[in-house]
Design a protein that fits this description.
about 10% helix; about 50% strand; mainly beta; 10-stranded antiparallel beta barrel; 11 strands
């Protein structure tokens, strides 16, 4: 190969490389390479375990509640209520308090829920009081695992002992679902009686004070 031919070949290679570099440089900024993970916003949010379990709920929420009017009676009559839930952090997150105020054609429900974290058992206890009754119900115990909160307790309904199950899941940061079910046969079967969907209205200011 003559010197002139070698120079011509090197020129063609250099021209090809420059073309490839130019093509890569004009890829859209949001183009996703095969090695890049999907956007974090597409994943279901993970509720933290441990003492930060209820951090997701701190703030003001719009609450839409469907409630079974007469649980464990064979009735299938549901009523709908709506209003707000306001959750405040206490003691650096080791406790929090939720204030519920909802109303509908069936009446108004105002209640308060106190949640306490036990560092030794690594569990939360939930203590609820309907203001109309003026007393706390028996606590439910549980925790958050893999982005899901589940709590269980014993109570009574119209004088008979029942078991209570409460489940919390979030589709995304701004929307969460709360389900309550009762069992009259020691947990063999469950009847859903409370379904709440909360949508975030206002999150707390994260800036330091």
């Amino acid at each position: 190969m003559t010197m002139t031919a070698r120079i011509a070949r090197l020129f063609r290679v250099a021209t090809t490389l420059c073309g490839l570099i130019a093509a890569l440089s004009v890829l859209p900024a949001n183009a996703q390479r095969p090695s890049e993970p999907a956007a974090a916003g597409e994943r279901k949010p993970s509720l933290p375990d441990g003492p930060g379990g209820f951090d997701f709920e701190i703030g003001r929420w719009n609450s839409v509640v469907k409630r079974l009017k007469r649980p464990l009676s064979g009735s299938h009559e549901w009523v709908e209520l709506s209003g707000t839930t306001v959750v405040r952090k206490l003691l650096d997150g080791r406790a929090n308090i939720a204030e519920l105020d909802i109303a509908g054609p069936s009446g108004r429900i105002q209640g308060v829920s106190l949640r306490l974290y036990d560092a030794q058992s690594r569990q939360w206890s939930i203590h609820y009081a309907n203001i109309a009754a003026g007393a706390l119900t028996a606590p439910m115990l549980g925790d958050f695992r893999h982005g899901r909160g589940e709590f269980h307790g014993d109570d009574n309904l119209d004088g008979r002992p029942i078991k209570v199950r409460f489940v919390i899941e979030c589709d995304r940061r701004e929307s969460c679902r709360f389900e309550q079910a009762f069992s009259a046969d020691a947990g063999k079967t469950w009847e859903l009686n409370w379904l709440a969907t909360d949508t975030l209205i206002e999150a707390p200011d994260p800036s330091p004070r």
